[in-house]
Amino acid sequence: MPSFTPRQFIILVLLTLAWGFNWPVMKLGVADYPPLGFRAISIWLGLPVLAVALVWLKVPFRVPRSAWPELVWLGATNMFVWHACIILAVKALSGGRAAILGYTMPVFSAVIGALLFSAALTRRAWLGVGACAIGVGLLLWHELTNLSGRPGYVALALVAAATWALGTQLLRHTRIGLPTLTLSFWMTAMTAVVMTVLSLLFERDQLYWPNDVTWASIGYNAVLIFGFAHAAWFYLARGLPPIASTLSVMFIPVLGVFSGAVWLGEVVHWQDWVAVALMVVAIASVLWPSRSAAKA
């Protein structure tokens, strides 16, 4: 197993809890509010939290002009597509199902790493990809057999996961020699602009002053997700090997499913139970070190 410093381990635990519980929180936030507008407000309010962190830690804000094209591409793959697609999926699907689909990211990351970055993909990893495909198929089958289901939103969640996987690989191979917090701040700022433009284009007539529940959800997302979780993820993704930096995602969708069932009374169908098991198997098969690696 990869070794964690105490600081990395604490960040990993806090990240898992923050992201895991956020799935029912987001579901509550977008229940009666336009999803893109919800996301835009959350990011704008989270941005000052990140700015305070940079000032407190004496991290520079400045980005060299030559680094901006790559930084925009990192923002697009790590945040723009993910946040737009996944919040629309959360609005239409149960929070638990969206969590399972969104956190297929490590499996996509393994495939992308093999195809684009010459990373070795073992037989066990391919087995994990197959388990993931079956799990997604079960979720999609449930949507197709339910008259109120929306399989198109399942596809949106998978697009979000695949794009985030690409972004994670690009972040690990980035040539930008800047602190992770600097990159996180500017990617978050760009995402705030993108989400605002999308909301104004598609939700202008639906926007209104949020109610108390929506504000509470926005506050959770502003402080814990955009003020902490994304910066924490980028820190782990850049500073640890792929296995270590993506370890927590094995637990986040499970936490999302069960917290959604407890807090929101979401019905957990047998397909969801099987899908949870398959996703955990799939992700573990991709991330868990082999015996030879463990001995080394």
Automatic annotation (TrEMBL):
InterPro entries: AA-Vitamin_Transporters (IPR050638), EamA_dom (IPR000620), EmrE-like (IPR037185)
One of the Pfam families matching this protein, by short name: EamA
Keyword presence, Oxidoreductase: no
Membrane topology listed for this record: Multi-pass membrane protein
Residue ranges of the TM segments: 36-59, 71-94, 100-118, 125-141, 153-171, 183-202, 214-236, 243-264, 270-288
Key words of the record: Cell membrane, Membrane, Transmembrane, Transmembrane helix
SUPFAM superfamilies xref list: Multidrug resistance efflux transporter EmrE
An example Gene Ontology CC term for this record: plasma membrane
Keyword hit for Cell membrane: yes
Domain of life: Bacteria
Start and end residues of each EamA domain: 10-140, 154-287
Intracellular or extracellular location(s): Cell membrane
Name of this protein: Drug/metabolite transporter (DMT)-like permease
Organism taxonomic ancestry: Bacteria, Pseudomonadati, Pseudomonadota, Betaproteobacteria, Burkholderiales
